[in-house]
Design goal:
This protein has 2 domains: about 120 residues, 2-Layer Sandwich (Glycoprotein, Type 4 Pilin), CATH 3.30.700.20; about 70 residues, Hypothetical protein ph0010, domain 2 (Dna Ligase, domain 1, 2-Layer Sandwich). The chain is globular. By secondary structure, it is α+β, with helices and mostly antiparallel strands.
Length: about 200
């Protein structure tokens, strides 16, 4: 995957998370969107927005995750994908105003950098995310996924293949040769609903 040069020093911030929360808040409550451009640098970068809900086990449950691997203006991309991830991830029902107001949502904003083509096993769990293409089908995992699931590299690749619709049972030499792989890193920031409300009322 060829990527435009992006700002390697760019880091995700609480401002970006606040903008994500505010955009979803306005969307689910049917309000005109408040301006968030002043909170976010005017630069381009691939990004993902991930929503979780707090759970009784202490480990947040995934509620939606969608983003873009092509560099885009993050001051427009973060508000957009905050709503898309919460409302259009087909694995989940859309977040409602009632659910939003219950106060259990958490958001992660991930800015993706250092895209490097690599061999399918030439990446580190917990440090790199990977995107693969196999027989014309692509799929991606952010750096946190393999670590959170306790997967090693081969297991992660099998899950990525399955995610892309290729139900390979074993990573044979022929399968590995047919995988086009790109690794990347991310800067991630988090915000809870209570943090959002505190800042909103400050």
């Amino acid at each position: 995957m060829r990527q435009k040069l992006v700002n390697m020093s760019l880091a995700a911030t609480k401002d970006m998370c606040f903008a994500a929360f505010q955009s979803l808040d306005d969307k689910v409550h049917g309000r005109a969107p408040r301006d968030t451009a002043h909170l976010i640098p005017d630069t381009e970068c691939p990004l993902f927005v991930t929503w979780h809900t707090a759970s009784h086990t202490g480990e947040p449950d995934l509620r939606g995750c969608i983003g873009c691997l092509t560099p885009l203006k993050i001051r427009h991309g973060i508000p957009k994908y905050a709503c898309v991830a919460a409302l259009e991830d087909t694995r989940f029902s859309p977040v409602t105003a009632k659910e939003f107001d219950e106060g259990n949502l958490l958001v992660d904003v991930s800015l993706l950098v250092r895209f490097t083509p690599c061999d399918p096993l030439d990446w580190k769990v917990g440090k790199h995310g990977i995107t693969i293409v196999y027989k014309g089908r692509s799929s991606v995992f952010l750096p946190c996924v393999a670590e959170e699931q306790g997967w090693d590299q081969p297991t992660t690749l099998l899950h990525l293949l399955h995610k892309g619709g290729s139900y390979v049972k074993e990573l044979t030499a022929d399968v590995l040769k047919s995988i086009s792989c790109t690794r990347f890193e991310s800067s991630v920031e988090h915000m809870t609903f209570s943090e959002y409300k505190q800042r909103l009322s400050a």
